[in-house]
Amino acid sequence: MTSLQITPEGASRKRRDSVLKRKTAAAAIAVILSLVGLFCLLRSGDYLVVNQPERSDVIVALAGDHNDRRYWSGLDLLRRGFGQQMVLDVPGGQIYGHSFAERASEFVARTAGGQESQVSICVIAYDSTVQEASDIRTCLERMSPAPRSVLLVTNDFHTRRALSIMRSRLPQYRWSVAAVNDTSLFGVFWWRHREWAKTWFYEWQKVAWWRLFESWRS
Known about the structure:
Helix content is about 50%, strand content about 15%. The chain is an alpha/beta fold. It has a 5-stranded parallel β-sheet, sandwiched between helices. It has a two-stranded antiparallel sheet with strand order 3-4. A hairpin with a 2-residue loop joins strand 3 (about 95) and strand 4 (about 100). Helix 4 crosses helix 5 (about 160-170). The radius of gyration is 27 Å and the shape is elongated. The model has no long low-confidence stretch (mean pLDDT about 90).
């Protein structure tokens, strides 16, 4: 019986083939992971946006409006029957001898038309959406009849985080959200404009902070 012997050259060739296979597999995995990562990165702008308005008892236009678009969108939804009343969040403080709440009330009186009596002002003490939820709770608790469902109105890039915060902090209400598009600030293809990229970057920072450090706190 003849035994087969592996020559040193054959053993070396097998080792090279094995190493080559491992490197090829590692390269293929790296390419796949890179493509998946790129896909997720390109879709990350779209992930921020939730636009699923539902007919509710109250519409709440969040503070931080850039050019009154949240107000106008909320008013349009009110006129279309998506809510019975509208709450307009307004920051505290004043400018040129008048509070922001006074100026907002005057603006509503000039622009709301037949819906003026359905719009109320809610003064917000803090800039953070998490802290704003506390002020919203106070304003909603003052309403009669007591609402059970709330439709949020805010900028599109802010919708997912805002909805998550309100559902977490005020679970006694049923929440939905309407997205306000403002192309001067954001677009889902965030890499196409510098301002969009800035908004995308800052919002994802806030999303990460909320998910990692604030969402689990009472």
